[in-house]
Each structure stands twice: as C-alpha cells, then as structure tokens.
Amino acid sequence: MIEAGILEVRGAHKSFGGIIALDDVYLSLAPGEVHALIGPNGAGKTTLVSLICGEQELDAGEVYINRINATRLSVHARARLGLSRTYQLTQLFPDLSVGENILLSLVARDGSRLRVGQFVSERAARRFADEISCVLEEYALHDHRDALPGELSHGDRRRLELAMAIVRDPKILLLDEPLAGLSAADADALIEMIAQKLKGAIPILLIEHDMDAVFSLADTVTVLVNGKVLMTGRPDSVKASKEVQLAYLSEEDDF
Ligand SMILES: Nc1ncnc2c1ncn2[C@@H]1O[C@H](COP(=O)(O)OP(=O)(O)O)[C@@H](O)[C@H]1O
Ligand SMILES: [Mg+2]
Q1: For residue 195, is it within any domain?
Q2: Residues at Cβ < 5 Å from ligand 2 ion
Q3: Which atom of ligand 1 is closest in space to residue 41's alpha carbon?
Q4: Are residues 141 and 177 in the same domain?
Q5: Per-residue pLDDT tens for 19-32?
Q6: For a Cys staple, 227 with which of 23, 106, 113, 116, CB 3.0–4.6 Å?
C-alpha cells in the first residue's frame, strides 16, 4: 500500500550506460508542503524530476501522482493528473506576447484543444481578457502585456513562467531552480512571491541551489548525493547534519 503522499517516488533506479544516476530513491511529498530537493552537481536531481514528469523512463521503481500509479503514463497524462513543472531554462513561446502566453495556459487549463498558432481567435482572447489582466496585475507584469518574452528582464520572465504554471491550476508544482540567474533583488522578490501565493496552497517540489531560499521556504528537505538519498528531514536537522555538511563542503561554500 502507498502512503498518503500527494507525490510518491518508490525505489527509483536510473542509469545511463555505466553511470548510476539514481539508486533506490524514495521521496514523498505531503499535501501542502514545500519539499526541497538539494544536492551537489550530478547528484541526480534533474533526472529525478524528469522521471516524475515522465520525460524519461525509470529502470525500476514507481511514481504515484495523487495516489494513482503513474509509472507508465505519458507526460501529458501526468499533467492531466495535476503535475506542472517549470524548467531551469525558461520555456516560453517566444513569438507570442506576454498576454498571449498567459492566454495559452488559461486555454490549456480549461481543456480546449487549440494548438499554438491556431489559438489566437479573437473570441478566445476576448473571453479571457479580464482574467489575463488579473494575472498580469498579480504577477506585476501589467506593463508588459504586449511585449515578447525576449524583451523582458530575467526576473520578469521567471514571474511569467511561474504565472503560466500556476494559472493551469496544478495539484503539484515542480520548480527546477526557479532562482537560477536572477539578481539578489529579483531572487528575493520571487521567494517572497512563492512564500505568499503558493506555500501551503500547492505542494511544491523545489530544486534549488540557493540555500537561503531552501531554508526559508522548505518544510522538508531531501538531500541527494551520488544518486542516493542521504537524508530527508526538517530544514534545521538537515542543516545540522554532519553527513550533509561533509557532502556539501566538497562542493558548495555557502552551506
Ligand atoms: N541523458 C543523460 N545521458 C547520460 N548521462 C546522464 C544523462 N542525464 C544525466 N546523466 C548523468 O546522471 C548523473 C545525474 O545527473 P543530473 O540528474 O543532471 O544531476 P543534477 O541535476 O543533480 O546535477 C550525472 O552523472 C549526469 O552526468
Ligand atoms: Mg540539474
């Protein structure tokens, strides 16, 4: 029987040729919690996220989303179960305006079968116009409605990507290094936004290098080293762990 986690990874194994990327990994995300996944470069964090999303296949083990065995389901089927992810490198539609990018997410949320390029019907745009305005306001993007993503600052792009993931009304959010490349001020603003709008409302698996962010946001921290879970616990006990400090000291100065 599986536990009550909203997202469960059980006994995950993954290797690439001779490299063992994940070795018997268990991870459980409780409803409403922010669960940080940390570990040195090459630990297997990104691999674990792509196995959860279905972008890669497990060699062994299982993934449960909302208590449904999703191990054999496609990326799209998992998204329909409520899984939404952001990428380390943003994946926006570069030829569509900020407002139209949001529109695409709203259309996707409502299950319409419109494809990119097809979707910009006047009717769809009118139907969602007010909601787009609200989203733009909420994410401080209202001055950029007609801009292309490429014209935005890095911080604005991150907020747009977060907004697009959230308006789809996900049940679980996977954030892959949301602060990567941001200035200190933009990073602080995004941490504040996650803390205020998301924490407690949506369970989040957060991959992040910024330890200040991890320890200010996370309820639970899992430390991955060489494809194995070294420890899962409360931020304070993870921070205090000699084993974790040793694993990090070789890699990171700021732990
Ligand atoms: N597609 C791939 N082909 C071969 N090796 C890979 C592939 N993806 C990841 N790896 C290897 O698996 C290990 C874990 O990588 P990754 O999940 O990217 O770690 P992290 O995100 O923690 O930095 C690394 O040794 C990496 O080189
Ligand atoms: Mg990675």
Answers
A1: yes
A2: 46
A3: 23
A4: no
A5: 999 999 999 999 99
A6: 23
